[in-house]
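Bug #77: duplicate submission created two jobs. Keeping one. Sequence:
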Amino acid sequence: MTTTTDVTSDASVPAPGTEPVERPRSMLQRGWEVFAENKLALAAVSILVVIVGFCFLGPLFYHSNTTVVNLHTVTRPPGSGHPLGTDNDGIDELGKMMVGGQTSLEIGLAAGLIAAVAGALYGAVAGYLGGWIDALMMRVIDSLMSFPLIFLLIYLSGVYGKSKTMLIMEVGFTSWFGITRLVRGEALTLKVRDYVSASRMMGAGGGRIVLRHILPNTIGTTIVNTTFSIADAVFALSTLSYIGLGLQAPNNDLGGMLDIGTTFASQGYWWMIYPPAIVIILIILCFNVIGDALRDAFETRLQKR
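Kept job's structure:
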């Protein structure tokens, strides 16, 4: 006697070749995954958020005198009513640091964006045009880079003034040389791509190709170096203010506070030196760490993981 066994197929098992295809991750998702793996970068972002909140939201909750001289509260150490003490004019250091941090961040961000736009545009045009025009444009950059930046800033500050707007322009237009060289290098490789050649054959002009095809494909390099430019701008502003060429009273920034503090360093007024110095260091360090992490996130070989 023969026993027949009925074999039933499991409906839950898909037929060969019909397995669901995993949806590919977008470039933004892959970039965020690489960025999120860098714990130091996440810590830098957190610290920067705290500093921004301290500078821009702090004055809404902590009200203090930051402009009027009060001779009755001159150089008081940290204590009741003045958590970080007062300066040589009797102005509350904590409130002054909030306002000074606002100014340093605003000038740094604005100058960094100016450097990014100017440098990316100049570099893209030089790389796309190539030939003797490219050589001439880059020799101009080499000449400017060979000149010490601090002396150029001192000259511009002395000639064109020390207002907030002028400092943004001066720092911004002396910080774009590095971005130019990097974007120009990418533009040299992008201009020979098929889509650029096709666009040229369809009658697109040089300006359209630069704006629609070259610059968008250098956005990674531009964003990464913008963070470095912001850090450099904050440092440059602090240096100018430290040597007395920054904003003039009643306006102030972190570098100006540090300048005043070091004047009284021999008298032991540490609260006029360490707080603004620590904030300057943290801002510059955070932007540099974030820039390093963004560079890894935009790296082509990491995007293919």
